[in-house]
């Protein structure tokens, strides 16, 4: 069985972080990078690590973009990683060992540790954060979700790897909040197309429960002020997405 691995990355304007990402996966048999229209030095940096670089500026969502990246992979085993993520050396070794005896219908789930505003977040619903990232494209593919895309592997045998990989979020708090607002708008648009409606009571209930869920139930208070900040941002995100939906109908 061929156990060669193709790493797929989608990106846009990631010159600040793409090198760290690429350095962490240069051991792979193949690196496939799909860009959505970078105007900085992202592609120049990427060319130092791979010649399999493709561009698609007709954005249809993260899921669609990752499926397109999959289609360019030469190997059946695919490792999907974002341009702001880093595979640790220990996880690299664990991946190589696991793939030696892997069944092609098996998928591997990694535990992501996020670095946010100068601190690794160990609670707040952010960790443990297990995500399927290594799979065989003969059987599984990314879904077509516009945001929060995932590998569609229902019924697969899932194996959890022990070592974590690292996620480095936006450099500034402003950038992260703007990103969340963008996600909220995308969510509202997708729900609007499905005919979903909302009201004042639902907005209030979802908004306050979002804070309670992250700060209390998901132990955000153990992350100190960062946990409080994450819970407030999640509350604001929830408030925004339901209001975006409500005012789409009013407009």
How would you explain this protein's 3D organization?
This protein is of the alpha/beta class and 251 residues long. The chain has 2 domains: 164 residues, Spore Coat Polysaccharide Biosynthesis Protein SpsA, Chain A, CATH 3.90.550.10; 78 residues, no CATH class. The strands form 2 sheets. Strands 1, 2, 3, 4, 5, 6, 7, 8 and 11 form a 9-stranded mixed β-sheet that branches. It has a two-stranded antiparallel sheet with strand order 9-10. Helix 2 links the parallel strand 2 and strand 3. Helix 5 runs parallel beside helix 7 and helix 6 runs antiparallel to helix 7. The longest helix has 27 residues. The radius of gyration is 19 Å and the shape is globular. The mean pLDDT is 96.
Report the structural category.
Answer: alpha/beta
Shape: globular
Q: Main beta sheet, described? A: 9 strands, mixed
Number of domains: 2
Helicity range: 25-40%
What's the name of the CATH homologous superfamily of the largest domain?
Spore Coat Polysaccharide Biosynthesis Protein SpsA, Chain A
Low-confidence blocks of residues? none
**Rg from Cα:** 19 Å
Number of helices: 7
**Broad CATH class of the largest domain:** Alpha Beta
Number of strands: 11
Listing every helix as H and every strand as E from the N terminus to the C terminus, the arrangement reads EHEHEHEEHEEEEEEHHH
- What is the second-level CATH architecture of the largest domain? Alpha-Beta Complex
| Strand content bin | 15-25%
CATH topology of the largest domain: Spore Coat Polysaccharide Biosynthesis Protein SpsA, Chain A
What is the average of the pLDDT values?
96
Distance between the termini: 57 Å
């Amino acid at each position: 069985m061929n156990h060669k691995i193709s790493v797929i990355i989608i990106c846009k304007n990631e010159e600040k972080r793409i090198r760290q990402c690429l350095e962490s996966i240069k051991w792979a048999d193949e690196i496939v990078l799909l860009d959505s229209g970078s105007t900085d030095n992202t592609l120049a940096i990427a060319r130092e690590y791979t010649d399999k670089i493709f561009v698609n500026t007709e954005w249809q969502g993260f899921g669609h973009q990752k499926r397109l990246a999959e289609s360019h992979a030469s190997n059946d085993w695919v490792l999907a990683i974002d341009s702001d993520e880093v595979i640790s050396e220990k996880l690299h070794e664990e991946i190589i060992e696991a793939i030696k005896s892997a069944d092609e219908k098996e998928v591997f789930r990694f535990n992501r540790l996020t670095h946010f505003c100068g601190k690794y977040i160990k609670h707040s619903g952010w960790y443990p954060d297990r995500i399927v990232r290594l799979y065989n494209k003969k059987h599984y593919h990314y879904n077509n979700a516009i945001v929060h895309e995932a590998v569609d592997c229902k019924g697969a045998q899932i194996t959890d790897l022990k070592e974590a990989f690292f996620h480095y979020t936006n450099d500034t708090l402003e950038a992260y909040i703007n990103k969340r607002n963008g996600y909220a708008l995308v969510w509202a648009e997708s729900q609007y197309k499905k005919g979903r409606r909302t009201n004042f009571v639902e907005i209030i209930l979802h908004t306050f429960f979002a804070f309670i869920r992250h700060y209390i139930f998901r132990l955000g208070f153990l992350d100190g002020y960062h946990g409080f900040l994450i819970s407030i941002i999640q509350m604001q995100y929830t408030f925004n997405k339901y209001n975006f939906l409500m005012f789409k109908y009013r407009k």
